[in-house]
Amino acid sequence: MGHSAAVWDHRASLELTKDWNGIDQVVLRNPQGASARVSLHGGQVISWRNDRGEELLFTSSKAILKPPKAMRGGISICFPQFGNCGSLEQHGFARSKIWTIEDDPPPLHPNDSLGKSFIDLLLKPAEEDLKFWPHGFEFRLRVSLASDGNLIMISRVRNINGKPFSFSFAYHTHFSVSDISEVRVEGLETLDYLDNLCQKERFTEQGDAITFESEVDRVYLSSPRCVAVLDHERKRTYVMRKEGLPDVVVWNPWEKKSKAMTDFGDEEYKQMLCVDAAAIEKNITLKPGEEWTGRVELAAVPSSFCSDDLDPHLNFF
């Protein structure tokens, strides 16, 4: 009886809707009024609102909202590659596929469903995917909204192939910010990073925080489990906690690149910052039957929070 009550409880806070292209979306809500909206196109979180109804994710006003194009904004799933290499489309195919809702996924840790509104999605390769990336896999994604409004995403990739395969991965997360020049990222100081604006040359971060006055496109390596994005003007801090994802991508296209992107407004770079939990520098390799898990938990808290409060030893999940 207890199990069915728990199922009802998390289902009661779900709403299934369709977008104007007829693609299914799932809206998660918590009792305090926070919400998250997930599109089955790409398994993409396209909205995350706090209990005051304020949108925490950026989506471009010029975003193309029609498959198979991935939408510019929210949190997209970059798999089986991040970036652009080989015969695959940029950032891989997962973000342009239609995912299915999975009613009875293999169990996660009990804490992963306790007190949370959540949805489980599943992606398997289609015939055309196997032509470009010939590997059998099952990709399970759980998106949860906790009672405190935190957004949690758990990705599980299983190799159901007869041979090993490798992939890279990122939760491509577009945070909404008041003004990019007022924002700082803490938790990545002193780390090495690959600079995509300099042919992936390796540098060491010198600042006591990352601030923005021009285009930034970097992969920070071997990063701590917790990173903070401080929005001075809004007095808001985004806290990202992660597991199984050693790297962090920091990206803002700035003015020139914004004007060159058809699905991005010329001035919108001022209102967004991408900080992605990722596994890019070293590919993840799975033997037949093996499974990888990558988790991220996002919180939006008042800005009295600072990264001195980040204890890397705490078990957040």
UniProtKB/TrEMBL annotation:
GO cellular component: cytoplasm
Protein name per Swiss-Prot or TrEMBL: glucose-6-phosphate 1-epimerase
Species this protein is from: Sesamum indicum
KW Transport (keyword) present: no
CDD domains to which the protein is assigned, alphabetical: D-hex-6-P-epi_like
EC number in record: 5.1.3.15
GO MF term set: carbohydrate binding; glucose-6-phosphate 1-epimerase activity
Top class in the EC scheme: isomerase
Superkingdom of source: Eukaryota
Alphabetic keyword roster: Isomerase
Binding positions for substrate per the UniProt entry: R72, Q90, R95
Record bears the keyword Isomerase: yes
Pfam families the record matches: Aldose_epim
GO biological process entries: carbohydrate metabolic process
Catalytic reaction list: alpha-D-glucose 6-phosphate = beta-D-glucose 6-phosphate
Cited InterPro entries: Aldose_1/G6P_1-epimerase, G6P_1-epimerase, Gal_mutarotase_sf_dom, GH-type_carb-bd
Similarity comment: family membership: Belongs to the glucose-6-phosphate 1-epimerase family.
SUPFAM superfamilies: Galactose mutarotase-like
